[in-house]
Amino acid sequence: MTTPLSSQILDRFAAIVGEAHALRDPNDQAPYLTEWRDLYRGVTPLVLLPGSTDEVAAIMRLATETRTAIVPQAGNTGLVGGQIPDQSGSQIILSLRRMNRIRDVDPVDNSMIAEAGCILADVHEAAEKVGRIFPLSLAAEGSCRIGGNISSNAGGINVLAYGNTRQLVLGLEVVLADGRIWNGLRRLKKDNTGYDLKQLFIGAEGTLGVITAAVLKLFPKPTDQAAALIGVTSPAAAVELLNMMQERSGGRLTAFELMAAMGVDFAVRHGNAVLPFDRPHPWYVLAELSGGEASGTLMSTLEAILAEAFEAGLVTDAVPAASETQRRAFWHVREMMSEVQKYEGISIKNDVSVPVSRIPHFLEEASAAVMKLVPGCRPVPFGHLGDGNIHFNVSQPVGGDRQAFLDQWEPMTDLVNEIVLAHGGSISAEHGIGRMKRHKMATIKSDVELQMMLSIKQMFDPLGILNPGKLLP
Asked: What whole-number distance in Å separates Cα of residue 271 and Cα of residue 258?
């Protein structure tokens, strides 16, 4: 239980970081109190911007002493409200934005130590300077920060080849609820000396500790890439094409994105996207191969695979990217999928995953179900087919009432989730639980799972001051 915050307590918190980094003015606080979809708005008496791990530790010691709730925040790009305080006005935001140093880059060890406030694009740039890549790639990479990526176990477009964030972290530095600092910044890929503690904090959404720095796994920079925008008749054909590409490319398939025609049409209409086809297709795939071959080699591989796919009837049209400019234009189509839906009115969004083999069945059943629930609604599914993650978004009917459609959020998501679970899937693939899906945890987790999770929370945060009201029921 937290207590009301007096001005004296607020002054003590502010003294830790200095008044210049303790935001009390509502205008200064505003960017920290809502997320980009404007679904969640919070209230806070104070936004703290520490500049070091020691300052974070001092904040948490004082929070424990005063039983003050702390909401960790990185880039504020989360989509489930996990980084936004509640309306009580008793929760302090702890923003990691100032902790944005790249502490070390080691191309021999293929690792980097980055502070939690580092913008993902800056991590990419630091890796690029030593001929390496950090493969986590998201549409929000120009503003999201590595601490948030780790706390939400972010996915993105390269999970097929490199895994999600959980697979890309070698070690962590974490400030615990009582202010103790765990220095787990180890570069080792093999360390078989007991529990892998870092995994507890990855995907925990700031409920167990405040991540302040991480050892990130780097990879050699590909010397060759080849991408193609492909028209297919159905998700089933796309799944067959996925398997063919994986088998024929020798493990060089690094991205395989599925897009419904309606979403692509939105991107052309509202996002300045340009298609290279002379006619529309019901479904589109954006596939990319990456590897260490001589430049141009993978294009020959890609073209050979596409020729075989044409013969097999899996592909109706395909355009390989003839230049880096065209490759980026293809990716622009995919990256605009979520943003352009705003121009079509309200959309109900579902971030789900099912086994790849079940995706065609899921899409067929879920589309039929939501259109029966809300006649005229427009399913706009897209996402990372290669790892089973589909963003099953549904736009409101043309000319329909926005609020009436928004009122269907819970019934529609419950309907979609029921189909997801029936196919052995997950109701959250890469966005997390946060506030949005917290109430569903008791229905999707067994009693044993919930007891284990709650026991871990109790051990790490017995006072319940770390990001309360998030993740756990």
From this structure: 18
Check if the beta carbon of residue 226 is closer than 8 Å to that of residue 207: no
Neighbours of 31 (CB within 10 A): 11
Cα(440)–Cα(426) distance, rounded to whole angstroms?
12
Closest CA to 426 of 348, 347, 355, 367: 355
Distance in angstroms (rounded) separating the CA atoms of residues 20 and 45: 15
Q: Phi, psi (5° rounding) for residue 135?
A: -80, -5
Coil, helix or strand for 462? coil
- Chain-wide mean pLDDT for the chain? 96
| % of the chain beyond a pLDDT of 70 | 99
Element (H, E) at 157: none
The residue to which tokens 């964030």 are assigned: 165
Q: Are 258 and 282 in contact (CB under 8 A)?
A: no
The Cα-based distances of 271 to 258, 320, 331, 344, 397 in angstroms read: 18, 21, 12, 12, 20
Max CA distance (Å), the chain: 75
DSSP 307-337: HHHHHTT--SEEEE-SSHHHHHHHHHHHHTT
CB atoms under 10 Å from CB of 333, counted, come to: 25
Distance, CA of 111 to CA of 132 (rounded, Å): 9
Say what the pLDDT of residue 37 is.
80
What token pair was written down for 21? 């980094």
Helix axis angle for 409-422 and 359-373, nearest 10°, is 150
Which of these, 371, 374, 379, lies nearest to 352 by C-alpha position?
A: 379
Give just the sign of the alpha carbon dihedral 107, 146, 335, 288.
Answer: positive
Cα-flanking dihedrals φ and ψ of residue 63, to 5°?
-60, -40
What whole-number distance in Å separates Cα of residue 93 and Cα of residue 319? 48
Cα(165)–Cα(188) distance, integer angstroms: 16
CB 409 within 8 A of CB 403: no
pLDDT tens string 310-324: 999 999 999 999 999
Reported for 263-269, long-range contacts at CB under 8 A and 24+ positions apart, including other chains, are: 263/337, 263/340, 263/341, 263/380, 263/381, 263/382, 263/393, 264/333, 266/336, 266/337, 266/340, 266/341, 266/343, 266/344, 266/380, 267/332, 267/333, 267/336, 267/337, 267/340, 268/333, 269/340, 269/343
Q: Yes or no: say if 239 and 360 are a contact pair by the CB < 8 Å rule.
A: yes
Q: pTM, whole model, 2 decimals?
A: 0.93
